[in-house]
Design a protein that fits this description.
Four Helix Bundle (Hemerythrin (Met), subunit A), two-stranded antiparallel ribbon, 2 strands
């Protein structure tokens, strides 16, 4: 059953990555050059001014919010079964942090020029996407944990979080970062 959920998450991740660049194009800024007035005393052929080339300006928008930054695994890793509510609140903050990290990386990738080789970046980003969805699946799995299985599930969520952060570091350290 969990495998089916994981496959769904991986498929969703691939779709997210595939379509994430579709809406990320920066607005074009075009400067208009007024044309010189045509005098009636000139030749019969009208003068057509040549427009300057279009200049595209893209600036990445800041993505991470201060409310997401303080989320740390160390804050929730020792929560017991009795402190599930505290754990789940911290887990939501970690998921928001991972989402903000992915948004930051996606925005950075969108502004990379065509000259830069992005093969390593894209490979590392695919791994980041996969680990993010695995972390989400492990987070959902711990909701069904019993008092007896809590510690085991907690370890799995912690390992998934570690993989997510390792993948994030790998994308940031790729040759095109």
């Amino acid at each position: 059953m969990q495998t089916a959920h994981l496959i769904s998450y991986v498929a969703a991740a691939i779709g997210l990555v595939t379509f994430s660049n579709a809406g990320c194009a920066a607005k074009d800024e075009v400067s208009e050059v007024p044309s010189a007035p045509v005098s009636e005393t000139t030749s019969a052929a009208p003068v057509v001014p040549v427009a300057p080339p279009v200049t595209r300006v893209a600036s990445p928008a800041p993505v991470a919010s201060p409310a997401v930054a303080p989320a740390e695994w160390a804050d929730i890793k020792d929560c017991t079964y009795e402190k599930r509510a505290q754990f789940f609140a911290g887990l939501k903050r970690l998921e928001a942090r991972a989402d903000a990290e992915m948004a930051e990386l996606t925005a950075k990738r969108a502004i990379m020029d065509g000259i830069t080789d992005t093969k390593d970046w894209d490979f590392a980003m695919k791994e980041m996407t996969n680990t993010r969805f695995y972390f989400r699946a492990m987070g959902e799995g711990i909701h069904q944990a019993t008092a007896e299985s809590w510690a085991e599930q907690l370890v799995k969520v912690g390992e998934a979080w570690g993989r997510t952060q390792e993948a994030f570091a790998n994308v940031k350290a790729s040759t095109t970062s």
